[in-house]
Amino acid sequence: DTATKKQEIQDLVRAVVILRDKGCLFQKEKGHICTGFRKDGELILQADHLLSRSNSATFADTRLIVCVCNGIHGWKSVGNNLRKAEYDERVKKLLSKDRVKLWELCEKDMYAHKTYKPDWSMAIVLLKKELQEYDNN
């Protein structure tokens, strides 16, 4: 069903962005120290969608998703995304110009896009291919 496919997409997206970003994107910021560890000491990494996950058109697009540590994600999300504007500005400084441009174009096109089960299945196929490319490098 759709919920199962979307969970598989989310799992694949997380695996891709962890490999692509080599951990928390904010490590690129001078002085950033990642926080948010499991009890066994492993850093919790999350796939953070730069646009709402409710937007089906961008849900599986890894160009619009970054890897962040649990600490930075929590910092942004506290108080109903109270710090989202500051977070977005910081992220934009860390991304390539083409990804920032795509992000800004998609923000302008936030009307509802209908996504069908075959679309979710195709997204899974493409994400598996993308993950395999990162695994091979």
Label the structural class: mainly alpha
The span between the termini is: 33 Å
How would a crystallographer describe the biggest sheet? 2 strands, antiparallel
Number of distinct helices: 5
CA gyration radius, whole angstroms: 15 Å
Helices and strands, in order, run as HEEHHHH
Low-confidence stretches: none
Query: What is the number of E strands?
Result: 2
Q: Which percent bin holds the helix content? A: 40-55%
Oligomer: single chain
Topology:
Layout: H1 2-21, E1 45-49, E2 65-69, H2 70-81, H3 84-94, H4 97-108, H5 117-136
Antiparallel strand pairs: 1-2
Helix pairs in contact: 1-5
Describe this structure in words.
By secondary structure, this protein is mainly alpha-helical. The protein is built from five helices and two strands; from the N terminus they run αββαααα. It has a two-stranded antiparallel sheet with strand order 1-2. The longest helix has 20 residues, at 2-21. The chain is globular. The mean pLDDT is 92.
Search tags:
137 residues; two-stranded antiparallel sheet; 5 helices; 55% helix
Outline:
Helix content is 55%, strand content 7%. With 137 residues, it is mainly alpha-helical.
